[in-house]
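Let's practice the habit of predicting before peeking. Look at the sequence and jot down your guess about where helices and strands might fall. Then scroll down.
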Amino acid sequence: MRKRIEYIDVVETLAIFFVVCCHNTALLGQSVLATAILQFTTTVAVPLFFMANGALLMSRPLDLKKHLTKTGMLVIAVFAWRLLTWFLVMPFDTKTYSQIGAVNLINYLLGGTTSAYIPVEDYWFMYRLIAIYLFLPIIKLVYNHDSKVFKYLMVIMFVAAFVVTEIDFIFKLASKWYGIGLISVGSFRDKIFPLSLIADSGFYFLAGDFLHRNYYQKEISKKSRIHLAIVAVAAYALLLFQKLLQQGTLSGSWQRLDNDYLRIGTLVLASSIYALFANTDFSNKKHLNRYCQFVSVRTMNIYMIHMYLIYVFNRLLVPKTSFRGVGIYLLSTLGIAIVGLLVTEPFTYIGFIRKILGLQPRR
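Done guessing? Here is the structure:
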């Protein structure tokens, strides 16, 4: 059994809480503080997950057979959860019953949409993760045998994901302010760069390995840690400023920053935070490690069911709750994460269901 890396358990525990924060917004309100919280959680949660995955998988030898088996089981789990969520929504929306034609069902399982709302839009993360896993053997081969080609791959992924996005954002603002036609560099990128689908998530994945190697159990000065914190704050301020430019206000109904995962500010913010955690010694935090390890192993369990739990929460409890604000928002978010653990945990003891749904831990 591999030794646990404590900081990764902590990072993944925070990341899954932030993910639930991103989607459980009904009770948060429309204040500037609400926008600030959502802007932070929506831009760091998923990158932290990809970074943690990269730190773990890039540092281990790759057994191709086991890796492909794991990837295949992940695909099956996504199909199974989409099907299960479909049926779980039926008691709340009878329109879902009309969607069970064979063709509609197959298209839905393959990632398509239905006329009835089914809370599986967050599964895009799973598709990106599967895409990275499919390319991982090639990436590992280049990584292990040709550092120049690997650096070249990192450069073109960075340009394709982050530089192009920032250029397109400038063009979009110019179009809005000066009434000129909208120019999109991204459309050209998508035509010439075959890995555009995973340019951002793949870069986060590989950045996690880089940060792990350079900060985990490394001696850095207190001044360097302060610099990382300052850089994180500056990157976050940049994202808020871009949000202000896009929307004209930092209050009111929530509107995501366009292409928020592909922003340089997001990359710098997530990287700085990850580096700080990687460089923090958690070995003496026994109670924290015990709780975080328990949650970290089960992050996928929470991830796959949390949108459905939020769907039920919004339909049954939110209309009966008059309170709005940060406190009840954070409390309800924590409650949904805990319910996700409680609901899925019994099924981890049932081998067939555990395998089909991709639940952890393995018993």
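How did you do? The first helix runs from residue 6 to 23.
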